[in-house]
Amino acid sequence: MMKKHGKLITGAMMAAMLFVLPTTPAWAAKLPGAQYSAVQLKAVQTKEVTYYKTGSASIPSIEWTTDTSVLKFLPLSVLGDVTSVVLDEGGVYWIGTENGLQRVNFSAEDTKDIVQYMAGPRYLYGGDDNVTALASDGEGGIWARTASGVTHIAMPEKTLHEKSFVYEDLVQSILDRRGMVHDTNFTFTETDSSFDAVNYNSLTGKFSSTPSTSDNDGLWTTMYAMGEVFRYKALQEEYGASPAADQAAEIAEAKAAALRATKAVLLLDYVSGRGNGFPARSYMLTSEAGAATVGNSVYGYQSQNGFWFQNFVGPGMVNPNGIIPSMQRNDGVEPIGYSMVRVTKDAESKKGSTLFPSGGTDVMNYNGLGLSQEAIDELNKTRPEGQKLGTDIKTKVATTVTGAVYQVLPVITAATNNKDAKEDKTTGESNKPLFQLTAPVYEQIPEFFNDLFPASAIVDGHIDMNQIVYKADTSSDEVDGHYAMFYTAYKYLIGDSTDPELLELKSLIEETTHRMTELILKDDHYYIEDATGKSTQWSRWFSKYFNDSLGTMEQQVAWQSNVGVDENGDDALSYGYEDGPLNALEVMSALKVASYITAKSYPADSMKYDLAYEQAYNGSYSKDEPYVNGQGYMDMAKEYIERRLVRQATNAYDDNDNQVVTEANVGDSTNTNATLHNDWTQYINYSDEELGWFPVFVLITLEEDESKHAQIVEAYDQWYSNEVREENPFYTFLYQLAHPDKTDVDLEAAVRFLYRFPEYQIQFPVQWNRQDVFYIEPGDRDDYKQTNYALAPDERRIIKNNSNPFESDNQTTGANPSYNYKSGNIEAGSVFTLPYWMGRYFEIIKE
């Protein structure tokens, strides 16, 4: 691992560090030097909607009004579409129009809440926005009638703590899949047969679902789990040493939820049985619908796309393809079985794009799932003549000026052999693929995870690995989440506990952190290696990936205009160029966490990780061969805005007939316009924003050196210069932790986000026929125009933090009197619970 670093780290430094004992990071305390004041939370009005279809016998007797005469504060010229107005007992105006419902409260404490807009099926039955009559409910809420139905929008006062129980109940009832938590389809049933409306808050209503796999189970579950850890710690400290019975029960529930979710994330590092810390994206049991194949065999097509492996473990389970070098163990441990790749679209056709401008046609220069040449050579040792990979059996992935480019993809069938890579659904027992990649299984899943599984999945006291189908090709999203989870659970959930279960969790976190970090640093390659013998498509942290040809580009005249081209004027930016700042923070965080967690169990390797982490602050990052992985990455981390501008300007150059954008030749695309104005916020990847949160949280709470800490904060400040306008506590509270001395952080706006966050994160179509906001052009990555400020969460579409909160995608198609409120898709409340409980623990907010 240290081959290239060896010349940069002196023996004296190594010797000195061997005697440095781990210390409690100064920044990890409850911010003793903080200058800000915690925001005192209060009970606020929260929208709760009940839906009555026209003709429902459950609609109560209501005195409707179509009077508009009480509306005195608007000129008559703008009242043409107003259909009814109610001035309720609290002085609030409810204004029904042909295009939705407005609530106007001139006494609102926050001026942004004076006008609230309600439209679409979330608030008006079936998305029928033509309000025909209104009626006050006498308690601060409103009855709204349309031709399609009636809705009652109640406005009870609730604390954020009370609201948090709704999200917890939904996890317990429908969102939890063996400890993993993310969105799911749901069915809502009203058990009171006399009530034919839909009220999600009904005491007699019941949610049900069958949660399924997601692309990043570990990342989404990490968000929930971290929130639960801080819930546990916050309640434990706030309720004190002698909590009341109900308080003690709440603490115990928080601890149990935190432990379960943490175990679910950690399990992903064991389900493959590879024994090398490989983090799976997700897994299924063979009994789950998504795991079904045509003909119910491993040779049949699986419609759940991705790069999936099925385990075969037990006596006589011999790997039919041999073991590629990167999967071989040199400690004498023999495999207990093997995993065979499932036949999916990705496994058959994911060829990927080129990575390096200087690359060529070698398979290592391609994204996608092509096997490395080393893997091919090893597998061919046991393959008969006429069935050699790369010669007899291969697939075409590209055509260049020098001819066709062939690779060996994980699944090759008779229909794809020596032809273009494509999907083939015809395979089965009688038509087996010509080649299906395998990986060895070296170890059983630890019994510690047994309680996450149903009894049907436990055989002889162990999880039956033959029922496991796991998803590989892991992205940095997963790795990002796993390390943040390792750290949060290790420090805040386990701490100095003597609880036997937590101590076993501690041991497994230490083992897994060590294994995964060794996998990343193996041969100094700085990536997660998959069963192909290559890195996965997105888990890469090596210098060339970010900076290939950078030295050459900087010599070109166009570079002065932020355009990255070679001497021929061709786009020469490396595939990972714009990812450099994020990925630098990611690998720095991984190394810092690994050094911290393994200090006692693996002290020598902990030292190694710390030395690798130190390299991020030493020297400059490489721009030409030989690239030194990890060196100078802190400087790269501080180039977030700069690299966005370069990638944007280079895209605009490509859009503009290979001309640098100027006022004289600006084109029509978003790229060219934003480039002209250096508006990098038009090139935001909101998924990257979310991913950037996790390493920053780790580093600012774990790094104790003031100089290093200041550089981490400097890097995050660039991200926050866009995030600030989102008014999202996920980012605002982190910014406050990064700047504990600041007293001008807009915490109130972040708290308003929590106040206005819907109780039920149901993905209703959103209506965007609004005239009260300004619209700007779409961002580079978006198809829809954007609002010029972030609307409150209960007035826009339901999203995680990885989507553009300004995007105004009009999703409604008019009134639907038969709209089905009894089923749909619902998100977990982690966007609320993580910042809420973290904010309470770090005393940024208080109930």
Round the Cα radius of gyration to an integer and report it.
28 Å
The average pLDDT is 93
The best one-word shape is: globular
Order of adjacent strands in the largest pleated sheet = 8-9-10-3-15
The termini sit apart by 49 Å
Could you give the count of β-strands?
A: 33
Strand content: 5-15%
Uncertain residue ranges: 1-28
As a percent range, the share of helical residues equals 25-40%
State the helix count.
20
Major sheet: size, sense and barrel closure? 5 strands, antiparallel
- Secondary structure class reads alpha+beta
Folded structure, characterized:
- The two termini are 49 Å apart.
- β12 and β13 form a beta hairpin.
- This protein has a five-stranded antiparallel β-sheet, with no helix packed on it.
- Helix content is 30%, strand content 15%.
- 48% of the residues are buried.
- It is α+β, with helices and mostly antiparallel strands and 847 residues long.
- The protein is globular and about 90 Å long.
- α3 (217-239) packs antiparallel against α4 and α16 (686-702) runs antiparallel to α17.
- It contains 20 helices and 33 strands.
- Residues 1-28 have low confidence and may be disordered.
